[in-house]
Amino acid sequence: MSDLKTSIIYYSATGSVYAMAQAAEKAAEHAGSEVRLRKVRELAPEEAIASNEGWATHARQTQDVPEATLDDLDWADLLILGAPTRYGMPAAQLKQFVDTTGPLWGAGKLVNKAATAFTSAATAHGGQETTITALNNTFYHWGCVIVPPGYADPIQFQAGNPYGASHTSNNGQVPPGQLELDAVSFQTRRAVEIARALKVGLASS
């Protein structure tokens, strides 16, 4: 059994965030963490999804990915959230899931967990940083310890986002490349390292 548990909870419409979530999953497992990869529930009507070929295809391809529950948050030592940008904020699907966490928050179940976030946007200045900092606002309320990637690895001087891994999809036409996947992998490894140190430190205090 691993000494650390990581929940990666994401929303993805056409697959960019899902690809990043998969990279995070592999990186966390390679770093020795047990991992749950979970999507949040889709809120859009079926006719809206069907009207977009990429959206419909991705929905079919990921239909077997388990949906996130509050237990996935309670279970984990490290929380990794991923969502596309919507007007500079996280997509409503992930926000709706976050809004159900009141029982855990009220019971202090999320305090002292490590947390980090990543995103994808359609355009180069489409709100990547504001989406991540908006997710950080949730972590503040939960009492988490936020782990940003910073510029703690050479990959960050290429990726360029110290808040969290981000991707520009060019309106859904460009999937995450190796640079973006390497950036989210580094972010995940760093978060696992800090979460492990935090867990050990709290246990010995």
From TrEMBL:
Residues 6-191 form the Flavodoxin-like domain. It holds the Pfam family FMN_red. It comes from the Bacteria. GO terms for molecular function: FMN binding; NAD(P)H dehydrogenase (quinone) activity. PROSITE patterns: FLAVODOXIN_LIKE. SUPFAM superfamilies: Flavoproteins. GO terms for cellular component: membrane. Belongs to the WrbA family. NCBIfam families: flav_wrbA (TIGR01755), PRK03767.1 (NF002999). This is NAD(P)H:quinone oxidoreductase, type IV. It comes from Actinophytocola xanthii.
